[in-house]
Amino acid sequence: MTQLINLAYLVAAVLFILGLKGLGSPKSAPRGNLTGAVGMLIAIIATLVDHHVLTFGWIIAGMVVGGGIGAYIARTVKMTAMPEMVGLLNGFGGAASLLVALSEFIAPSASSAETMPWTIALALSAVIGSVTLTGSIVAWAKLQGYAEKAMQLPNQSLLRVVLGLGVLALSVLFIMNGWGFILFLLVVVALFLGILLVLAIGGADMPVVIALLNSYSGLAAAATGFVLMNNGLIISGSLVGASGIILSQIMCKAMNRSLGTVLFGGAMVSEEQMASIPGKEFYEGKVKSCGAEEVAMLMENAQKVVIAPGYGLAVAQAQHVTQELADLLEKRGIDVKFAIHPVAGRMPGHMNVLLAEAEVPYDKLIEMDNINPEFSQTDVTIVLGANDVVNPAARDDASSPIYGMPILDVDKSRTVIVIKRSLSPGFAGIPNQLFINDNSLMLFGDAKAVLQDLVRAVIEL
Amino acid sequence: MEALIGALTIFVLAVFVGYEVITKVPPTLHTPLMSGSNAISGITVIGAILCAGSGENGTFFSVILGFLAVVLAMINIVGGFMVTDRMLHMFKKKK
Known about the structure:
The complex is a heterodimer. Chain A is α/β, with parallel strands linked by helices.
């Protein structure tokens, strides 16, 4: 029977891998997700028939409660709130691993129990689980806007080093002696460490943090796998661990940040750079603004239009009217595409989901590296609620604080229309060279209202 | 010790497989990838079930901790797979 159960775990792991493989294209993705879910079902059934499982009351109760809550969240969450949901689920995953580690310590079930590798795995699972739990809660609170800014406690870096060393020392002590109260202390210190690690990180860096915590929740599951010596857990946990690491690397690259500076709360712009940032005089007399009719006229003669959205688009809830405009232009025979910067939304791939929800076909969503060569053949580019990611200074001005950050080369198109409420700076806090370029026109106002005007103007052409 | 080496081997190989598979996921699908991996990390439910169902081999506390772990892992599993499905069905090609 045990062999059969282990075979079932292998099948489940293979289904997870096939499921992730399915996510290789939007077409095969829904089936891929279903494949993963079937794998999970097989793993759960295999565990339920394990002879170590003697009573079912608590299991069923837990499944009903957890399943109900999960289904409710999944059905009601708004797509703009996906980062919060993923952040929270990361924390739950970490917490589940922590609880299993504690429960296994109280009443060991694994055959390897109380050997050295078991104790090491137990400590790892408890530490990673704890850090993931509290780190995710802080990240969630930041995304909700409760503590958006980077928070600096007095002696924060020192405190972090002390807590980090504390975790290390307590782990060694626990592994050597296996004392219960040390494990308890270890969990408490690790919980504090999790809070401190994320507290100092600013709102702009949250996509990296969410991806990293995603990875941790997987590693916690893998560590639990070592506690139970269960291959199914080890494989699945490491898949998630790899996924989170890859995504945080991609996010770091897109923001021109290193993982180290994000984690240690380094600011995007240093204080001395801050002092040299020009104020309002940067724009004085150089900005050209225009109205909806003028833009509609420009479109009339255009053959190719690119829309470059930023999160401001979602804040203004203008996704649907954007799609309406794109539709109208296409009906006039104009080629319309969307240029998606990796950090256009609040988490990896977020902007794509928001636009897909507004029924923009996914083959119109072009990633940065593929759309950049096309801007020189584009007649009109509309920048919608994006700022730092279209600032040409990042490419051309070596003295700029954001120099080196990959950007959308919107300034290379014939005309750039920037739809924005005001000239206020983005996350980096610096003025945007794009707004004073000769081929740029500003269209001031709330994105939704402006686009509605624009749709009307195009209809009247 | 032999079991540990075996488990480590599996861990390392799985990280490589994960790396290969996940680098092929296009940026368009990175959000569903994250919610989907939320669901997969709910695999801890295996351990949670063993703890919550250990009956007289466990103690009151170990069973309650197991129960809480089942709740949290199930939120991840059901919530993760369902929200991923909801998102993926929004991705449509041009009519």
